[in-house]
Specification:
four-stranded antiparallel β-sheet; N-terminal domain of TfIIb; 9 strands
């Protein structure tokens, strides 16, 4: 997930002339994903009297902090992969489960 460097909104992947660009709906600007520099963000959430900090990890950041599960990589056959969940569809549908092979780095997904 990438964020607009100007306003902080989530950038949406969009095809422009056959290439993937990241588009900010608020600023109406397209970005080249290879030129964006990822940074870590912290979001503070308050529920009642309790405050919680949520760290948003950017692309290729904190990979070693992700949990590992036993699953077979469809590319190399390795049996260990990092995993994470992300809400990729509407809120009333289950999140998508992503896996990244610890050996070859191949990433795949499973829909809930």
């Amino acid at each position: 997930m990438e964020f607009c460097p100007k306003c902080g909104n989530i950038l949406v992947p969009t095809k422009v002339k056959g290439k993937i660009k990241l588009y900010c709906r608020k600023c109406n600007i397209y970005y080249d994903p290879k030129k964006l520099k990822a940074k870590k963000s912290t979001i503070t959430e308050k529920i009642g009297n309790e405050k919680r900090k949520i760290v948003v990890m950017m692309k290729d950041e904190g990979e070693k902090e992700l949990p590992i599960t036993t699953i077979t990589c469809p590319k190399c056959g390795n049996t260990k992969a990092y995993w994470w969940m992300q809400q990729t569809r509407s809120a009333d549908e289950p999140p998508t489960l992503f896996y990244k092979c610890t050996k070859c780095g191949y990433t795949w997904r499973e829909y809930g």
